[in-house]
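Researcher: Here's the sequence for the chain we discussed earlier.
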Amino acid sequence: MSEELYEAVTGYCEEFLGSVKEYPFGESAGVYKVAGKMFALIAEDARPPRLSVKLDPEEGLALRAEYPDHVLPGYHLNKRHWNTIVLDGTLDSDEVLALLRQSYDLVVAGLPKHLRPPAPDR
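Model: Thanks. This is the structure I predict for it:
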């Protein structure tokens, strides 16, 4: 299950307008950015892989409480806004992709208007 979920996550990241994948922290951490700002980080060498996303602080806390072993404070990131999701299938694909979309939308909303790409579904 985790490999399918990993493929769904990476495929979805690549669909977002303006999305660029970089490896600023080495070969094991893929970072997806829009207009130079990170919206997702995938620890590709972890088994199962882990996805870090930016969320509203209250939503992140609620998810951490509901899934204490599978949604963790963002690893090496601002723990108020960033959450690390263990891609082991505990959170289903639809939920993970919705959280990923929220992360992208939050980052895009924080960009100056002239740098914001249109939403991919518009």
